[in-house]
Amino acid sequence: MTKTTKTLLPAAAALALLAAPALAQDESSFRQCQSCHQVTAPDGTNIVGRGRTGPNLYGIIGRQAGTVEGFDYGDGLVAAGEAGLVWTEENLAAYITNPTDYIQEFLGDDSTRSRMSFRARSGQAEVAAFLASVQ
């Protein structure tokens, strides 16, 4: 083992330990979502949540809005996806703050509605960070 490796391995381990509480906090923020959503990997491994009302959120960051195969999205979210809405941590956090307002603003159409009626009152950035971490 080289001197550099001996120095880097403990540093990497320390960084991982420092990041663990943040990830745990982000996952705990997802609790407010799990009654309707789940995060299940393509191989069937359930990471968190059991809800089936909303779509599986695994891999949502970087995905076009309204495109999980087999999920029946509302017209507003499908239209937003077709108009170019791709989920980022930032816009997902904004969306879960007020889904209908977000879609209306994105599309420029005050008559559009989101089927997601839940509004996150806190932890939006943490939820988005958690979902980004389980890609």
UniProtKB/TrEMBL annotation:
<keyword id="KW-0479">Metal-binding</keyword>
<dbReference type="InterPro" id="IPR036909">
    <property type="entry name" value="Cyt_c-like_dom_sf"/>
</dbReference>
<keyword id="KW-0813">Transport</keyword>
<dbReference type="GO" id="GO:0020037">
    <property type="term" value="F:heme binding"/>
</dbReference>
<dbReference type="InterPro" id="IPR009056">
    <property type="entry name" value="Cyt_c-like_dom"/>
</dbReference>
<keyword id="KW-0349">Heme</keyword>
<dbReference type="GO" id="GO:0009055">
    <property type="term" value="F:electron transfer activity"/>
</dbReference>
<dbReference type="InterPro" id="IPR002327">
    <property type="entry name" value="Cyt_c_1A/1B"/>
</dbReference>
<keyword id="KW-0408">Iron</keyword>
<keyword id="KW-0732">Signal</keyword>
<keyword id="KW-0249">Electron transport</keyword>
<feature type="domain" description="Cytochrome c">
    <location>
        <begin position="21"/>
        <end position="135"/>
    </location>
</feature>
<protein>
    <submittedName>
        <fullName>Cytochrome C</fullName>
    </submittedName>
</protein>
<dbReference type="GO" id="GO:0046872">
    <property type="term" value="F:metal ion binding"/>
</dbReference>
<feature type="signal peptide">
    <location>
        <begin position="1"/>
        <end position="24"/>
    </location>
</feature>
